[in-house]
């Protein structure tokens, strides 16, 4: 069919808006010929296990699924008994953006903690890490953190390790939502393993869609004692792909070489460039009243705008309110966002201030 949209126009609402990286499309085409055994017994899924071990070490287990919500919910399900609860930031995707799936589908209680920068600390965790043995309280048995966070900030390996040690000392487990784990690793200039397994994470959701895949994520188990029943839970939750080779082939292409890194580097770098150029315009007095509400550490920019500016710019470019009461919006860059795209975006912002 003919394209129904203008492929030259980019948006700043989400890295999910981007299409698939051409190398990912090529991988799907290459995996398409002939027949392969269904439900994950194909040669691509077997190869995927080796690829993940190269990044994360021996004994890692990987379970491809269709999307990130499923990766989070099923991964957490495998870490908890029916009476278990998850401590997480109030901004966490599992709390804000998954439509109650952890509670309604996963059957778990979320215990949320307010954070200024989207990051949990041992001290913040302790505000909800209590009540063990109390039959009237859901038992806090897992802590879930996001890397990079929902507000674009980063955990250092030392911060993750401090949380992991604190959690494990209390008999809890550590889950990481790694929807943008590639962006975090690139921003920190560290291997994927350093900020996950080596830092004490037990189970992780590995994100691919936001980093150039067409569809698909993965549940990654670093400590087999922290997770049970995933092989059954994935099927029970309708996330076992019959043609799993097409998810696995994408993940292989992302991770076997440096595509994961190249894509994340572009998204991070273009976000940093957008932030620098906006800072310059603010310093020159051209964007009066604009302030940034979070550090720009990955591919997200959080900014507060004067009244009416966001709606004016949104006539040309789509993006989301983060806190509408305070005129705070989120601008996201993707693997395919270019300098020309931010030129056009900045021109529209300047026009909104000039009008």
In words, what does this structure look like?
The chain is an alpha/beta fold. The protein is built from 13 helices and eleven strands. The strands form two sheets. A seven-stranded mixed sheet has the order 1-7-6-5-4-2-3, with helices on both faces. Strand 10 (320-323) and strand 11 form a beta hairpin. Helix 1 (22-30) crosses helix 10. 49% of the residues are buried. The model has no long low-confidence stretch (mean pLDDT 98).
What characteristics describe this protein?
13 helices, seven-stranded mixed sheet, four-stranded antiparallel sheet, 11 strands, 355 residues, alpha/beta
Strand tally is 11
Enumerate the strands of the largest sheet in spatial order, edge to edge or round the barrel.
Answer: 1-7-6-5-4-2-3
Given as residue ranges, the uncertain stretches (5+ residues, pLDDT < 50) are none
Could you say which structural class the secondary elements and strand pairing correspond to? alpha/beta
Strand content: 15-25%
Q: Could you give the distance between the termini?
A: 40 Å
Instruction: Estimate the global geometry from the Cα principal axes.
Output: globular
The whole-angstrom Rg is: 21 Å
The sequence of SSEs as H and E is HHEHEHHEHEHEHEEHHHEEHEEH
Helix content: 25-40%
Largest sheet: 7 strands, mixed
SS element count, helices: 13
Average of pLDDT: 98
In short:
The chain is α/β, with parallel strands linked by helices. The chain has helices spanning 22-30, 43-56, 68-77, 93-96, 101-104, 122-125, 157-169, 181-188, 230-236, 245-256, 259-283, 309-313, 339-354; strands spanning 61-65, 84-89, 109-113, 139-146, 173-178, 203-206, 217-221, 291-292, 300-304, 320-323, 328-332.
